[in-house]
Each structure stands twice: as C-alpha cells, then as structure tokens.
Amino acid sequence: MILSKNSKRLGIFFFYDEEGIVDDYVTYLLNDIKIHLNRLIIVCNGKITPDGRMKLELLTNDLIVRENKGYDVWAYKEGIEYLGWEHISQYDEMILFNSTMYGPLESFNDMFHDMEGEDLDFWGITKFHEVTYDPFGTIKYGYIPEHIQSHFIAVRNKMLTSSEFQKYWNNMRPVNSYIEAIGFHEAIFTKEFSDKGYTWNTYVNTSDLEGYTYHPILMMPLELIKNRKCPIIKRRSFFHDLSDFLNNTTGEQTMEAYEYIQANLPYDTSMIWDNILRTNNQADIKNAMNHNFILSSKSSNGNSHTSKVALVLHIYFEDKISYCLNYAKSMPPETDVYVTTGSEANKKLILEEFKTLKCSKLEVIVIKNRGRDVSSLLVGVRQYLMNYDYVCFAHDKKTKQLHPYVKGESFSYKCFENTLKNSHFVNNIIETFNENPRLGILSPPPPNHADFYFTIGNEWSINLDNTKKLSEKLNLTVDMVGHKEPISPLGTMFWFRPQAMKTLLEYEWKYEDFPEEPNNVDGTMLHAIERIYPYISQQEGYFPAWVMADTFARIETTNLYYMLRQINRAYFSKFGPTAHYEMVSNINKSVKVSRKYQTKQILKRYLPPVAIDVLKKVRKLVR
Predict the structure, then answer these.
(1) pLDDT (tens digit per residue) in 107-157
(2) Strand (E) positions, 79-232?
(3) What pTM does this model have?
(4) Distance CA 507, CA 509 (A)
(5) Peptide bond preceding 437 in cis form (omega within 30 of 0)
(6) What domain range includes position 438?
C-alpha cells in the first residue's frame, strides 16, 4: 500500500517517567511528528505531574493516564481500545511509538516523504537483526527473529483492518516484565505478520550490517545517523550497561555519535542532558560517554582567560607550605587565592612564603581545627565561592595511617598532578569547562596503588548510608546505589563550577557539623561529603568527570593494564581464557573469597598498624 500526501494518519504515543516529569525532549519529539498526524493519542503509564499534564494537553485532547502495568505493549493496547477498531479503520496509517528515543535529530519530513512512496503494509525506523537463540526464554520461536524495533512501528490500513491484527491485540498476553515485553510483542511482531503475507521494511536500511551487529542503533549509532539518515538516537545509548557495550565493541559508540550530533545537527543536546542527568546513574552516564579528559601539560590555547577563577588551598602541616606553593604557581596570574590554615603561626609562614605567588588576590584565613579540608571549603571560604566561574580546591595531604609513608605521598602526588600539574594543564582545564557547559566537576581518578587498590570496586567503602542520609538532608533526588560507583574526588582535590555546587554551598555549614579530632579514617561526615560532591553537581544539571594530565595518563594506563593482566593470568591459569563479560559471570558464580580473608583486609585498611598489632596479640592470647 502506497500513501498519498493527503492520507490520514493516527499516532499512539507511549510515555513513562518514574517521577511523571515531561522533559523537553518529549514535547520536541511530539511537536515535530504531530505535523504528520491527524490525531494523537498519548498513553502515560504511572503518574504525571500537573506541569507534565499541561504540556501534553497542549499537544492532544486524548491523554490517558493509566496504571504502570504492561510496559509499552499494554499502553498501546489501551490506546487502541480507547479508540475502537471501527474508528481506527478510518485511518490510512497508525503509528505506535514511544519516549525511549531522542529526536528527530533532523526533521521527520524526509522519513515520512520517503516511506509514503514505499508499497508496504507496515514499517519502522530501525530493526534488530536475527539472533539464533533466545536469551530471554520468552520468545515462542526459540530465537530472536529479525524485527522492527518497537520504539516506532507504522501499520497501514490493509493490515489495520485485518482480523489477524485485531486478534493479535485483543488476545495480547499480560506483560509483567521487560523480557516479556520483548518476547510477547517486540521480538515476534514483525515475523508474526510477515509470515501472514504482509510486507514490511525499515527507513534505515541496515541489511548489509547483518553479521556485524545484532543491534545497529545501539552499537553503531554514528554510522546510522551520519551515513544512513537515521533521525533518532536511543535514550539507552547514554546509560546502557558498559559490559554489553564491551562484549560487542570497544565502547566508542555513544561518545562518537553524541559529538557528531552536537557538531553537525540542529538537535539541541541540552534536552538530552536535562533528561539523562535527572533520570540515570552518573556512573552509567560516565561510562557510556567516556567522560575522561586527558589534557596536555605541554601546551595550551593561550594564557589569558575571561573566566573568573579561584584557588582554595587548605594547609595544615607547616612542612607542606612550600610543596603547596609550588603547585599554586600553576594558576593564572588573574586568580584569586584563598588559603585556610589552623593557626596564626601558620598564617604568618604562609604569607611570607606566598609572597612570590603571582595572583590577583591572596587571602589567608585561620579556621577551626574541626572538619579539616572539608570545613575549609564549606565554612572557611563558602561565602566567596559563588562569585567565581570555576574553583580549584586542593589541600596538603598526609595519609599517616599507612606505612611506609611513601604510599600516602604517592596518593597526594596523584591528586596534585591531576589538578595543578602546571600552567598549561590548568589553562586547559579552564578551557575544558568553557567548552563543556554541562561539566560540573573534574577530579582525578581514584587511587589504585598499594593498599589503595581496595578502593577500585569499593568506592563507597562504609559510606553509602551516611551519604544517603546527607543526600536526604539536602533534598537530592538523583540515583545513588551501592553497586554503582560515585564519580567522586576520593582525595578531595578537584575543580568545580560553583553553580554546580549551589545546593551544597547554600547550606549554612558550621564547624559543629563535623567530627572533632582525632578523626576516624573512614565513615564520617567528611567522607560522606567527599562522595556527595558529584551528586550535588548532577542534581544541579551538570555531569562529573575524571581529569588527568597527559604525563600521569601514561602512568595510569601502565598500571591499569598491568593490574588487569595479572588478574587475567591468575584467572586463566585456573579456568582458561575467556571474554571479560563471561569471566566476571563465572567469578560471581564460583569463586568465593573467605569471610576470614575479607575481614583481615578490611581491618588492615581501616585500622592503624598499632591497633592491628594489639589485635594480633589478643588473638594469640585467646588461642
């Protein structure tokens, strides 16, 4: 069936948002596609806010808000039942589409124009290629057939009015899970009606990619958008499980597609950020977008900036004054510098040594010895911070609970080198903020050497509960879960955009909010704040990222490859070579670390050596 320009078209749109918020990407999508529709039905699963309802009612008089059951399948079914088959038969084409995509990246005009001339019974934008088995266990064929993806399926009158199509929806099985939504509808719909003699196609032709990938729109979005006129990108691209990406690719797809869209297409990518930062976990976003900035320490784009920049340094130890000054000299001469310290004696020493520092302003502030570097930032200088575009925060760092002390010194080195390496590096950090208006916080990656290796995979340590309590206190709503790491400055040295820290900086912190000395090495308010910085940024609509100097990236790459290789060799020697995905799955199933070993490692990490010695003596006496 070929359509004419005057054909009547019906659209049933499925919308779901956990909070019931209708973001701008939804109304943008609907406004563009509505031009091609004679009637639009919107079916919302779950709740919707009054503002969201108002936005959608500007687009249609047919808004259905229903119980959040049945996923998109039963939302479409309810939309069909709302209209009835007699009414639906009046349309030349019905489109079932949903809010799991961003677009149109360019107008849908070309797509509708091209597809109107195709002699088809049903069509879609993209397809999923055949998989010879059923990973879900819900598909009646025992494998995943090639099929049109359910984010957009158009059905024409011949099929709309058929008894087969009506029976398909009238007898739809209840859908109680995501895999049932795939198995009972998405994966079988195309084959079901193709086998009945109905013709189909997709706007984006990926037949030549059969064998390259099962899922072109997710695994090869740049190819589809750049070279095949694909008008959408999946929301899932920005938070999809990295293990699945790495099981198919090297993880480049979302970053490359996003950068192409931003540079070459009219789509406003701020609509993506507004939605993704509100609804998804920051670790997933960082992984999908590869938010790691490797910046040159050898050259920069000039030495002058119009941005207003501040450096905040907390110096507690007298013997670290010169060390901190050396890194402070990396800041542009236009910088305002605030140094906090714990005594008048230290203040005099700092003022004397910092005479050689070229800066716009130097202020040394004596603060109470309570809260350490955290109270320095949130009490000592809080009143000044919102006056700046960007702030660098650093402090003298001694990790005295670890022996030998070089372990702690190396941690300090990693923090300083990746925040204040030299003037070129600092200029490039400032330029990175300028070029990325949604960047809120830049921090070095977590430590991973010596006893700090324990950090990787244990970034929360014992601080999830206290961070969640602080989150509730600050009214944060962003996703925070224990099995996904915070993109936090574990070392409390970082660059940030004060606007991205607004919620934290507007809170009236007092020294009494922090524990008295001597302080515990973990599990305190200080450690909760250390982890909440990026969540504050995300709540304000900005993303956190890691930053490294090019020189340190050489070290980090060597270390990470060495560590991974050693782990692989140990595993392969016992279980044989395998892919990372399968390796992790096998470990989770079969390799159990003894409780005794875990306890010893935790005690070793969090207790000073003297306490460990006492425990050993006690154990000996008990025995």
Answers:
(1) 999 999 999 999 999 999 999 999 999 999 999 999 999 999 999 999 999
(2) 93-98, 101-102, 122-124, 127-128, 147-148, 152-156, 200-202
(3) 0.92
(4) 6
(5) no
(6) 292-556
